[in-house]
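Support request, please re-run this one:
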Amino acid sequence: MNYADDNLIKYNTDLREVASKLVQKYQASGKLPENDKELLVSFYLTKASKTHAAIMLLCNSGYGMDAVWLGRTIFEMLVTMKYILADPTNERINQFTSHGWIFKKEIHGNLLQYNPQIKGFDGFNKKIEEIKENAKLAQEKYNYKAYSGWSYENMHAMAKEVGEENDFLTCYGIQSSFGHSLSTCTNEYVRKEGDKLIFDAGPNKNYVNFALTAAFSSYIKLCIEVDKFLSLGFEDEFIKLTSIPLPSI
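Re-run finished. Output below.
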């Protein structure tokens, strides 16, 4: 059974072909990232490629609602990358990378609290001291707020600044509702029909085309930003794909 619109599958497949050439050309250059911005760009390009492939696999199998959540991941990478690259200094990228020490400290702190026996593992004590010291320096410099992530701005504010507010307002809430299993999704899985309760646990067409459309939109924009930053020369091929008449979501 075909769960997805044939045109949407073709559009996303065409996009993957150009994106694959982008990755291959960058990898074939053999050069290492020259700075943290370039490292972020190469990381997000690779992760977005894998995530987009997973979305297509899920949609082809009739699991669009799970693919919807993955689409949010690509959108967040797009916004984060554009937000960091928009800064002519290194302040935002440094704030982004330094927050990793805060996250590591939280994770290792939880491990110690609930699994104190790991203190005896080789090298653990030395590692945790390194993490604590770097987390302390990062916190003193950037004054991160608890549970608010690396940036002083939330995702909506960052999306607005980099010109992605429309997708945030139209898609992000729906993507988040499936990822966080909010009550608004209940009827997509369990619903009453007459005097029976229907458990819709198998594949279907629900949200498949939404997931493919949203993923295409975020992934192609991410690829265009990467191509522009790395000067790999695929702009015309990507721009040609942006003229495709996607269905409204």
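The first helix runs from residue 6 to 28. The first strand starts at residue 190 and ends at 193.
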